[in-house]
Amino acid sequence: MRKSIHFIGIGGAGMSALARYFLSQNWVVSGSDLSESPITAELRKEGIKVKIGHKKGHITAGMALVIYSQAIRPNNPELKEASQRGIKAISYPEAVGELTRQHKTIAVSGAHGKSTTTALVALILEKNGIDPTVIMGANLKEFGGKNFRHGRSGYLVLEADEFGRAFLHYSPTLAIVTNIDREHLDIYKNLADIKKTFMRFLANLHDGGTIIINRDDKNCYSLKKKIDALARRKKLQIIWYSLRGPAAKKIKKAIQILGSHNVSNALAAYHFGQTLKISEKNILAAIRAYRGVERRMQHRDDVRLATGDLSIYDDYAHHPTEIETTLRAFREKFPKAKIVCVFQPHQAKRLATLFKEFQDAFNNADITLILPLYKVSGRDEETLIYTSENLVRAIHKRQPKKLIFYLNDPKKLTIALSVLLSSLKSRPSSKTKNKTILVMMGAGNIVQYTDALLKWNPTNRAQSL
Length: 465
Prior knowledge:
Layout: E1 4-8, H1 13-24, E2 28-33, H2 38-45, E3 49-52, E4 65-68, H3 77-84, E5 89-91, H4 92-100, E6 104-109, H5 114-126, E7 133-140, E8 146-149, E9 155-159, E10 174-177, H6 191-203, E11 210-214, H7 218-221, H8 224-234, E12 237-241, H9 247-254, H10 260-275, H11 280-289, E13 298-305, E14 308-315, H12 320-333, E15 338-343, H13 348-353, H14 355-358, E16 367-370, H15 388-398, E17 403-406, H16 413-423, E18 436-441, H17 446-454, H18 458-464
Parallel strand pairs: 1-2, 1-4, 2-3, 4-5, 6-9, 6-10, 7-9, 10-11, 11-12, 14-18, 15-16, 15-18, 16-17
Antiparallel strand pairs: 7-8, 13-14
Helix pairs in contact: 5-10, 9-10, 10-11
């Protein structure tokens, strides 16, 4: 008889991937979420029973296990009902932690670049005859547009998130650290707390395991003495990678996605491949074939307008470092283009604690349009001081000539873009009809507005924009 499992908060990136894992293991899978989304729709198509809303009736007799996301509170009616029925209930990190102890786990951690690096590691394995299971936080074309891959080897490639200190539950054989930054400050006290937690994560490595870590990241390198001491104690192999190293030039020639930050991510994957003695030729071939994950500098469409060619991109950047890095990559790739960034701040605590850093994040955009804050359910509420509108005011105060605007109603986005894009025609630097890059950026529901833009036919778009 097939076992039954239920996911509370199944629409999350990690939760949906884990649900797909259990489906691949022939479990009967059900789940609930607060609202409909493209993820819940896809899960239904795959045979998972998804209910909208959290109700105790969703928990039924005979369920072997309930897994809940970190956003779920103890008073959740489904969680309470599972307890009353005596059904085992564990968090997402606890469930994934159990999997890491059943596999040879490669855990990819870091404040930024996890999804890209996880994808590259997985593709290097797949394209070289190793059949990994993969759980990640973004969809990959090579996985059928999903965030999960079912493999038959003993390898598990895992995107190991530090949010909620989730990765402390994991027990990897090899760990990658792409960078360390002031992120998730609703969870961590400060940068010192974050560094300390990363060291606790690395201490969970199996004896004789491997750490691949970014030499160019100052926060990573500041831990070198502690990492060396840990390596001696647990007999770990330590590999520091750098853009100044000899492999970087080879990767720059091979990689097809934008930005030096992605060269750095690929370097981590390259060194991973070398630990398995995969040939350099085959590693670079896998990197060359990679075309990016969903919502990471993802090209969505090209449109010809009266003002010139418009290329529309989606990006998940929501931290000041990510925003600055992504826009700089677009500037390097398209030095003569006009760059328009539409940004939706994500999570009130992040906006508040990094308010100063956000003010310098948009310097590589010619025009920036900021939408209202996307509030994350169950995490915190927007303050009256640190709002999107006040961020625009703060940037104007520091850079009076900066073309940055606040749009209170995202439904009026096409009208706003029409005005802003037409203004590019009369700018002194626009002597010809240059290419314009439109970057729709954020971790909230801004992708829905991108999707709305793409539903117009070219004629309508030319008129509306």
